Amino acid sequence: MSEVNIPFRPEFHEKILLGTKTMTCRSKRMGEVGDLFKVGGQRFVLTQVFRTILSYVVRDAYEQEGCDSPGELIAIWEKIHPAKGYEPDSTVWAHCWMEAL
Questions:
Q1: Domain for residue 5, yes or no?
Q2: 17 in a domain, yes or no?
Q3: Which of 13, 22, 25, 51 could form a disulfide with 92 if both were Cys (CB 3.0 to 4.6 A apart)?
């Protein structure tokens, strides 16, 4: 178990702290199961880290990403990745967490 740095945009901090965002997908692996990270002084523990297809996240896990709809998640992804945009078949690393006790 290590402490890792997973950077988040400021607009996601509140959703993470409220527990409405419990997943982030990244192009690279940011940690291992059991690793800890902090947001707003609060500690969280990674509970799952796995490779998946971006379209799966958009279709089936948009709520864990803190979004109200697949379209909202696609819009956020395109904002964060303006050059590449949303490519449904892209492989990403999904990181899921819960508040650390």
A1: no
A2: yes
A3: 25
Mean pLDDT across the stretch 14-23? Answer: 97
| 59: CATH | 3.10.400.10
Number of domains the chain contains: 1
Whether residue 79 is contained in a domain is answered as yes
CB distance 95 to 64 below 8 Å: no
Sign of CA dihedral 15, 68, 91, 27: negative
The residues, ordered by sequence, that sit 6+ positions from 23 with a Cβ below 8 Å of its Cβ are 57, 61, 64, 65, 94, 95, 96, 97
Using alpha carbons, select from 78, 97, 98 the residue that is nearest to residue 24: 97
Q: Which of 31, 78, 29 is nearest to 58 (CA)?
A: 78
Please tell me the predicted confidence (pLDDT) of residue 97. Answer: 98
Residue 52's DSSP bridge partners are 92
DSSP structure string for 24-70: EEESS----TT-EEEETTEEEEEEEEEEEEHHHHHHHSTTTTT-SSH
Residue type, 91: T
